[in-house]
Amino acid sequence: MNISNRYLTASLFTFFLSSFSHTAFANNLNVEIESPQTIDSKGRLHLVFSKSADREPRNYSAWPTRNIEPLFSKDLEKVPTGEAMQVNFNDAGFPYRSPQDLPPGNWFVQVIYDTDAFDSRINSPGNYYSEVQKVELDFLDSKVLSFNLSKKLPPETLPAEQEHLKFVKMPSELLTEFWQHDMHLRAGVILPKDYYSQPDKVFPVVFSIGGYHGRYDRAERTFNNKDFQTYWFGDEAPNMVLVFLDGEAPLGDSYQIDSANNGPYGEATWTELLPYLTKQFRLVDSGETRFTTGCSTGGWVSLALQLFYPDMFNGAWSFSADGVDFRYFQLVDIYKDENAFINEHGVERPSFRAKDGEIIFSIQREIMMENTMGRNDSFAYSGGQWGGWNAVYGPRLDNGQPSVLWDPITGEINKEVAQAWSRYDLRKYTEDNWSSLGPKVAGKLHIWMGDMDNFYLNNAMKLYEEMLSNQTQPISDAKFTWVDGAGHCDYRAIPMLQKTLSQMHDRVPEMYQTK
């Protein structure tokens, strides 16, 4: 980056921060932490403020809109017992750099100490947290906020099962070896209406992948939906097993594929979990009867699985997929652009928009939030969307840490890392391998996208469609559905599921087709 561009970036960043700054307190705001027992674990302490008493502040929204709860975070080696521990949160906050910059008034405030490096969530099982306090901040008095980490989140428990709703948690040898820590794979399973009345029958399976960080317990919400139950136990629903995969990984979402930073989530899912599910739930052991679908992250994963494992699945129904061409990674061309935060016109690059085009927040604002959330003050450890992409697509450094595609403060793109990302560029992968891949995915690619996707994902999908339309050896028969004015995952979930399952059922070999 040249000097003028660097100056422009720094100036815009300073302006960006000042736009969220209010008159600072005349005196300091000090924070003290106590614990009834020594917490002899490294972790990240989060101090969260909220204007609402509707939920505990620790249940942080991680959605950087205008009214996001202020968050301040700090890495700690441990929390001793016996005396109060002073914690300085200066220069570790979002959207304010310091608690002293908070606007005056009444706040609900709470701390949580995240000690679990193998779970990407702030509120992971076993983490310590305090009671919620209501405080009044003003300009006159120095404040000392004292918190006691007296509460602890309970161990993980699977949701309650029902006759046609099951949950799986199985140890993974492959992931345990990679992480040198006990690791598990999870799934939610919805069984078809005739599952128990036909005990000798085997069933086709649909793998549902959620949006970013979508958990396996999505199965419970789907199953308990009244419209879904009316359909599922009626005459029109096909007898197929629905498996809801789990997106949780130590650095965000696993994307159900192998990656240098997350480890062998692809191999573990398809060589450990799949055989277990096949045996446990009487699945047909054939690629002709397996399907993938999902929206957003699930849209990318469902398409990627069909491309990376073309014989394992008989169709992907991809909705509002994450960027499938890294020349439009949202609005960033990771190969040619110099900076992710500031575009070639010197304007801050947006990340999220309303369907009328109104900008809601920028990439720079989103990264600032994730830098606050993440260990080492880095979005690479945030568990957020950008950190998750870095973990899945990026190389691993020699010290074991994940690389980052761009500098978290300036936004300057690392071209060496960008080149390493290219192996996950689905447009490039499809184009480079089309002569052998094309025949294997014939009739299998079904893609839906709104032309006003809130995350600008329609741009990359247009490039993907153009690439496929130019293939001649063989000609592509991929089906694209574009919806004018539609945003991200902007469709009615249950009717779309019905339509999707019907199309999948039509591709099932006749001997396994039953309704």
TrEMBL record:
SUPFAM superfamilies: alpha/beta-Hydrolases. Keywords: Hydrolase, Signal. GO terms for molecular function: hydrolase activity. It comes from the Bacteria. It holds the Pfam family Esterase. InterPro entries: AB_hydrolase_fold, Esterase-like, Mycobacterial_A85_antigen. Residues 1-26 form the signal peptide. PANTHER family: ENTEROCHELIN ESTERASE-RELATED (PTHR48098), IRON(III) ENTEROBACTIN ESTERASE (PTHR48098:SF3). This is Alpha/beta hydrolase-fold protein. It comes from Brumicola blandensis.
